[in-house]
Every structure is written in structure tokens, then in C-alpha cells.
Amino acid sequence: MSKNCVVIFLCGLLFLPVIVAAQAVGDYRSRQDGNWSTAGSWQRCTSITPVTWNTASAAPTISNGVITISSTHTITVTTNVTADQVVVASGGTLLVNSGNTLTIADGGGVDLSVSGTMAVSGSLDISSGAQVDTNNNITIVSNSSGDGRLGPMQGTINGSITVERYVNNIGVRSYRYLASPITNGNIASWQASFPITGLFTGASTSAEWLAFPGMVSTSPSLYFYNQATEAYVAYPTTNNAAAVTNGVGYAAYFRDTNPITVSVTGTVRSGDVPINLTSTGAGYNLIGNPYPSAISWDLVDLTTLPQISTTYAVRDNTDQSGVGAGNFAYYQQGGGSSIPAGFDGTIAMGQAFWVQAFANSTITFQESNKILASSPIFFRKATSETKNVLRIKAEGLSNALVDETIVCFNEEAIDAMDRKDAVKRLNSKLNLSSFASDGKEMAINTFSNLPIDRMVILNLSGATIGDYKLNFSQLETFLALPTIELFDDFTKQSVNINLQNSTYNFSVTSDSLSYGDKRFRISIKNLVTSLEDENIAVSAYPNPISNQYTISLPKEVSFNGSIGFYNTIGQQVEPTLVNSTNSEKSFDFSNLQSGMFIVKIPTTNGVHLLKAIKK
């Protein structure tokens, strides 16, 4: 597609070229306010000698010439549109509605130039090679109706973009966990939206913010998390020109109890964004979504990063997620377990969140992690749940306290803490958790799927005196419901948990044994987490075993990994491999004690589980 211009050389005092757009047949300009896809919103140039404009018979597309939104006109994108050579003239307005995408293609030269106003409540996608001149006039909108975004960025942006973050404070003052989507933001840019106080030059004052007459200017209200010391650090300590670093998470105290919109203007982050994580202590790092777009945790590549947990956590001080004010929400990658139920792992634009590292490492976010998610809140719901999940919820009957924990089973997990777990982060009030086999306290406790009996200890802390209930849910996610028994060691009672009996009422008293980790235990027996293909015969003999044990596969199936042997408490044992082919392996059991073992056999037909007994 050609781009035409007339170059006029001014002689004498000035020697600079002034570029003036010339019309070409096929160019479009707005005729009146209207939708982009409505032909009546447009005029089309049909002649240049003389220049003639006629009402268009169709809306403009990428196959047309220059597309101009004229002064005083507002054009709204209400369906997905691909275009280039788009010009928003001074005084003109281009709107991209929620749920719709405007894709700017590469046509050579400048493909989108905004001298008027452009507001994106949907998605603005910039194709490879495309060039956008913002003239500081593009806004990514966030309000009570939803969030816009800058979609996958493959082209070039010249100039700044304004990015908004709507925050629904729902009547309470609280800390909110924020991140900046621009690379050149500073404290002053946030201070235009909410007061930031502390021991630094340029701290907000009550004279500037008349709504907060009692505000103490020297009291710190913004913090970052120092992972090396595992402590929050007041920020800044110099002046309000200090940087708000892209990719870093911040805890900001919001004094306003009404919804506000945090607005920043600058160079938006694009491309790959590496963020370094450290592993001091528990290894939790407070990081931020670096993009002016929601991202999906499921799309973040962790396949080569076993030292990073697959679960992230967000603290919800205003109970927008339903987990209770001051509680943490969790999401396990891969459509895995989540707290609250159905949380889908979407990380909102401007959201800070916690990631756990077991060793120093680097997590890299990519343009492909972006998704179009219009919800203005920081929590979204999933459409499906993982299998083999036992969700346990503690709920106050005489107060509003609530918390959840999950016990689940996965063939890639082990019973001790690993990256499939979520270590418990303490809420401000009630806490319910369980312990992994190595004694680590978990919010999401993922065990291996070996069909062995387990006793899981629960821990209830932060409970005030009163009446409560434990609710057991998602029992239907098991292939076959295991035998689940709840032991209450304070009242010396035990109850079977099933689909007909999934609630247990209890009271917390002044007795320390009525809460904590000495009261509740859960026995889980007869676990079935996978079904074998009945048409595939895996032969294992002899059983019982004297010394040698042989596993044989049919010709059409071969081994696909190492065979695992586990005792009845989940510990892996290692008989000696004495013979191995693609379809048969033999092991020497003479060095193992007598007892029952679970044999985990990975094959090209799936994972098979067998029971073996050593005499």
C-alpha cells in the first residue's frame, strides 16, 4: 500500500521540510460519529482531480488507503478490525471497545498516528514491522467496566502511552499490591493518583490531599519486599523522583475508601522481561506483572525451571476473591488446584504477586503470556478444575473468619515439599493448612498419586473463641472416592467424610488443644488416581517376591522412563536392576525388607501402578 506526500521546501530563513498529506483515491476519512464497521461513518476519496469525497459503501479495511478520523468525530471499534495508515487527527477520537481488537498491520511508514485522542478498552495489537506514533495521546483504559490492554507487541511504538489501573477499594483502607507497566515511572507519577508518604523529599501532605486532614506526611505508606532479609522496606528514602521499577511488586497503602484509578504515562514494557528471583529463607519474591496487559500464569514457561514453584500467591486485603479479607489466594499452573475454587491464574495489569524460588533463578515473561481479560478486579474464575482434589474450608459460624487448604494427588509430585506445592503464607486472621511428609506447612499440599494410606495433619491457627465448621468439597474430582476419615483429637471423635457427609461442626475454646496442629487429622485410604488400559497387559512376576522380580511389557509397548518402587509410607526404595531391555526389566529384591510395595511403571501407553509383596 502506497503512502503519498507532498514535500514543500521553504527557502530563506528556514531550510526544514514540512510534510503535508496528499489525498489518493481509496483514502478514507470519517464522515460523522459512528462505529468503524458502519459504512455510513465514512467518506471515501473517489477522485483527486478535483478531490472528491463520497459516502462510503463499505467500512475501511487494510486494503484501503489512509484512514483518517477527522477533528470533532468519534469512531468506535465494536468488532475486530485490522488496518494500517490510521491517522487520528487533532480533535478526533478513536475508541476500541471492550472485547474487541484493533490490529495495526505493517504497511510501510507510520501505521498509526494519534494527534487526537485514542482510548483502548479492548485490545490494541501491533503487528511485526508496524510503527505507531502515539504523540502521548493513547490511553489503555481501566475502569469499573473492565480493563483494556496493549496486546502482543511485535512492532515499534514511538512516544508515551498512558496506562490506567482501576482499584476498587470497596469501603476500606488497606494495602494493595501494585506493579508498574512502564519502564520510566517514578514515585511522583503514582502520587498524582494517591498520596505516598514517608521519610523522603516530596512526600505527600494533607495540604495537597484535603480529603485526608490527619495524614502524617512522614509515615511510610509504600514498601517493597527485600527477599534477602525477608522483610518489607519503606520506599523511597531519597525523593519522589525515585524509580518505580518495572517488574518489582510494591505494597501501597490506600487511604481512600472509594474506588480510584491509578494512572501512569511513559514507555510501556514490551518483549521478553527477565526477573531475577532469590531463595533466602522460604524463597518468596514479590514481583509484578511487567506489561500493560493481563497475563496468564499458565502461559509462563516454567518447564526448564524446576527451582521455581508452579504456584503463585496474591494477598487479598479487601476480599475481592472470596477467600476472606487479609487472606492469600493461590493458583497452581496447568489448570491445577487453586484457592479460592475456580481461580483461573489470570494476573491483572498492574498486579504484584508472590513467586517462590527454591534456588536463585530467573523467570522470564514473554509477549505470548498476554491474554485479553477485561475484568477490572485482580481475581478471575477458571472454567475447570484438576482431578483428585480434596478442598477443606474452615468457616466461622459466629464470626466472618474463613480460610481454605487443599490436599491433592498428582503423578508428577512427591509427598515431601516440591514445586507442585504452595507453602502456606500466613493470613492476617484465620489460617488453615496441612503438613507435607517432611513437616512443611502447605496451603496446597500435593502428594504423589501412589495408592498408599496417608495420615495428613491439619493446622488451625488465628481462630478466636467461637463456633466453626470444616467443609470438605470437590470429592467428585476423584476417579473413585477414597476412604476419608476425620479425627478430632480434642473431642476424641472421628467421622467418615463422603458426598453425603461433608461438613463437621466444632468449637474453639480457651484450651490450646482446641486449635493448632494437635486437633485434626485426616486419614486417606484406598486412593485410585488412574485407570489402566485393560487391553494392555503388564506382566510382573513372581508375586510374592523371593529375590528377583521381573516386569514384562507386550511388544507394542515400551518403557518410557525409570520404574519407581515405593513402600507403604511413600518412601522410594531402590532394588538393584539386573537386566534391562525395551520391554523387560528384572530387579534384585534381596537387599529389601519384607512388605508391600507400589510399583510405578511409565510406559508409552501411560503410567501403570502395580502392587508387589516381598516375602
Tell me what the structure shows.
This protein is mainly beta and 615 residues long. The protein is 1% helix and 43% strand. It is built from one helix and 56 strands. Strands 38, 39, 40, 41, 42, 43, 44, 45, 46, 47 and 48 form an eleven-stranded mixed β-sheet that branches. A hairpin with a 2-residue loop joins β55 (595-603) and β56 (606-614). The chain is globular. The N and C termini lie far apart (81 Å).
Architecture blueprint of SSEs:
Elements: E1 5-9, E2 17-21, E3 28-30, E4 34-35, E5 42-48, E6 51-55, E7 67-69, E8 74-77, E9 81-83, E10 86-88, E11 93-96, E12 101-104, E13 112-114, E14 117-120, E15 123-126, E16 131-133, E17 138-140, E18 142-143, E19 146-147, E20 149-153, E21 156-158, E22 161-167, E23 174-178, H1 187-191, E24 222-226, E25 231-234, E26 250-254, E27 260-266, E28 273-277, E29 284-288, E30 294-296, E31 308-316, E32 327-332, E33 338-339, E34 346-347, E35 352-357, E36 361-365, E37 370-371, E38 389-396, E39 402-409, E40 422-423, E41 431-435, E42 441-447, E43 454-461, E44 466-473, E45 483-488, E46 493-497, E47 503-508, E48 520-525, E49 539-541, E50 548-552, E51 564-566, E52 572-573, E53 576-580, E54 584-588, E55 595-603, E56 606-614
Parallel strand pairs: 3-7, 4-8, 7-10, 8-11, 9-12, 10-13, 11-14, 12-15, 13-16, 14-17, 15-20, 16-21, 17-22, 39-42
Antiparallel strand pairs: 1-2, 3-5, 5-6, 18-19, 22-27, 23-26, 24-25, 24-26, 28-36, 29-35, 30-34, 30-37, 31-32, 31-35, 32-33, 38-39, 38-44, 40-42, 41-42, 41-43, 43-48, 44-47, 45-46, 45-48, 49-50, 50-54, 51-52, 51-55, 53-54, 55-56
